[in-house]
Write a structure and sequence with these properties.
about 625 residues, alpha/beta, seven-stranded antiparallel sheet
Length: about 625
């Protein structure tokens, strides 16, 4: 949600900024802009509603010279998407320009105070309030920019990652962060900054992840300087980032989403590498070894997450309760933080987030820590805020996910949750050894079975054409397949804009069955497990009302094939791993329907990849 890029050094800044914004397009945005300081000390701001390509076209023929610049993609919060509300924002004098990712919660009070002192505003944004406040302090107290930023941040309530230019100090960028992602790239006599490492890795693999409350001063010809609002020096560690350009490019696929769907066999292999041995008979998680006492002592597990990660948590609940015999609750992080939940030091809280920056999940982690709970993070983005805030955890190691609609991160999260349940159940002695060995072996072989499903891509693409007419979809599943139904419906909603709902199949009779007619496609996840006969009855109820049924069934199933309109066969596996297989064709179905409808698959409207505001 919003992307920021900055550069200061010896190269032309503009090409680096534009390419960096393109790397961050996956985060979701509705406008873009850049500010550049040229060698004459002129500060120029260019911005427009629309895509990065629109910004690049707008800048064609304009002066974009200079070796210092900042750039931004905005996802609207305060003020509609427009060129005026796009970042960067000038201060009143146009001496300063700022970009900002996050939200200033007390912006209205600050704005009223500044207006009462005669400050004129150009936009409706909270971000402009910050740059006007900094300039007001700088001007009226006759302070340097760093001190002015420190004093301004004392007054600001909210989350932010900012970068600031001052045309009177043309060899400097000042940045700051609090509860919002920021990465600093350190090159030879040059610095980069961005919301994540993807715009930086082309130029340097040396990065700094500043801690909350950091203010970073980047000056030409000087060492990186990091302080806090009290001007106390901080000394963050320079890390080597393990990310290559091939991971953030499409690699011949028409969309990142399709690429990432097809990457899942390799990604899940990477997720399990070093955790499941080559004999596929044992799971080892370092977090379970290092924190066995805390995990074994848990009286309850609470999973907090949002969106797709919440669906993964629902699957995790079932597999952890099944193998570990610990009660598990799954909470929307956004609700958990506001309802005064009962959390005790006997609880383990599992926080799941692809980006590791989800604002609601971060707030839930903070609340749980205040109550003394032990926090376990499951994330994809190394060095992100949630791994830094938790006691321990596991990375899913599926590589950067660029498509806004999550695919490989979901299956990675489910894989890690399953490994956690297996490892913890083994330590507790609550899982039968034969079951343990069978599930570990089946999990190890899941990537091969996903490859088998991916061979159905062309058939699913053809099938999708039939259903582009639909205005509504219903997704049904039971047991482990119910969260898959929720996730399948979410994928379709996100990228095709077709209304879809996921339901437990048995609940269909308690309301949704009223919707079923010849125009209502119903996707039913019906592998051959203990609930098969129950789901079969649900399909018969749908067909009796002329509903169109797309059924996901176990390979060789002939019973459902006789009554469903379309059947997609899945390889056999144990019941708790069926979600890892059933999810893949639903991802493909959503993808191809969206493509047939001409939608922007990788960047669906109104959505952001990393939701860093409430």
């Amino acid at each position: 949600m919003c992307g920021i890029v900055g550069y200061i050094g010896h190269r032309d800044a503009y090409p680096i900024l534009i390419k960096g914004l393109q790397r961050l397009e996956y985060r979701g945005y509705d406008s873009a802009g850049a500010a550049l300081l040229n060698d004459n000390g002129e500060l120029s701001v260019y911005k427009t509603k629309g895509k990065v390509a629109d910004l690049d076209a707008y800048c064609n023929g304009k002066d974009v010279s200079g070796t210092v610049g900042i750039a931004h993609t905005r996802w609207a919060t305060h003020g509609e998407p427009s060129a005026v509300n796009a970042h960067p924002h000038y201060s009143e004098s146009k001496n300063l320009a700022i970009i900002h990712n996050g939200i200033i919660e007390n912006y209205a009070d600050l704005k009223r105070k500044l207006q009462s002192k005669g400050v004129q505003f150009r936009s409706d944004t909270d971000t402009e309030v910050m740059v006007q406040l900094i300039e007001y302090i700088q001007t009226h107290k006759k302070l340097d920019l760093l001190t002015s930023v420190q004093l301004a941040l004392h007054e600001v309530i909210g989350a932010y990652a900012i970068a600031l230019l001052d045309k009177r100090e043309p060899s400097q960028i000042i940045a700051a962060c609090r509860q919002s992602p920021l990465v600093i790239g350190v090159g030879k006599d040059e610095f980069f900054l961005a919301s994540d490492a993807s715009p930086i890795v082309e130029y340097t693999d040396k990065v700094v992840y500043p801690e909350d409350g950091s203010i970073i001063v980047m000056r030409k010809g000087e060492e990186l300087k990091v302080v806090n609002v009290l001007n106390r020096a901080l000394f963050p560690k320079i890390q080597t980032v393990d990310l290559n350009l091939g991971q953030i490019e499409k690699g011949g696929y028409p969309h990142f989403m399709l690429k990432e769907i097809f990457e899942q066999p390799e990604c899940l292999t990477n997720c399990m590498r070093g955790r499941i041995n080559v004999e596929a008979n044992h799971v080892t998680l370092s977090a379970v070894i290092d924190y066995k006492k805390q995990l074994l002592a848990a009286k309850r597990i609470i999973i907090v997450a949002c969106g797709t990660s919440w669906h993964a948590g629902l699957i995790g609940k079932q597999v952890i309760e099944n193998f570990c015999r610990i009660p598990v609750e799954v909470e929307y992080a956004s609700e958990f933080r506001y309802r005064n939940p009962v959390v005790t030091p006997n609880d383990v809280v599992i926080a799941i987030s692809q980006s590791g920056e989800t604002a609601d999940t971060l707030a839930a982690v903070k609340l749980a820590k205040e109550h003394g709970a032990f926090i376990y993070g499951i994330c994809n983005a190394i060095g992100s805020s949630i791994p830094r805030a938790t006691d321990t955890g596991s990375y899913i190691h599926v590589g950067p996910e660029i498509g806004v609609a999550s695919t490989k991160a979901f299956t990675g999260q489910v894989t890690v949750l399953t490994m956690l349940a297996l490892a913890l159940g083994k330590e507790k002695g609550t899982i039968d050894n034969d079951v343990y060995l069978k599930v570990v072996k089946e999990l190890y072989n899941i990537p091969v079975k996903i490859k088998e499903i991916l061979k159905l891509n062309d058939r699913i693409a053809e099938l999708s054409r039939v259903f582009t007419y639909a205005h509504n979809f219903l997704y049904l599943g039971r047991g482990y397949s119910y969260p898959v139904a929720l996730e399948g419906a979410l994928k379709l909603k996100e990228i095709s804009y077709i209304h879809a709902e996921g339901y437990p199949a048995a609940e269909m009779k308690h309301g949704p069955i009223a919707l079923i007619d010849s125009d209502m496609p119903v996707v039913v996840i019906a592998p051959h497990n203990e609930l098969y006969e129950k789901v079969l009855s649900n399909i018969q109820e749908i067909k009796a009302r002329k509903g169109k049924v797309i059924a996901l069934v176990s390979k060789g199933d002939t019973t459902i094939a006789k009554i469903a309109d379309e059947v997609i066969e899945l390889p056999d596996t144990v019941e708790c791993l069926e979600p890892l297989l059933a999810t893949v064709p639903l991802q493909l179905l959503a993808y191809h329907i969206a493509v047939c409808k001409g939608k922007d698959v990788d960047q669906p409207r109104n959505l952001a990849k990393s939701v860093t505001v409430e």
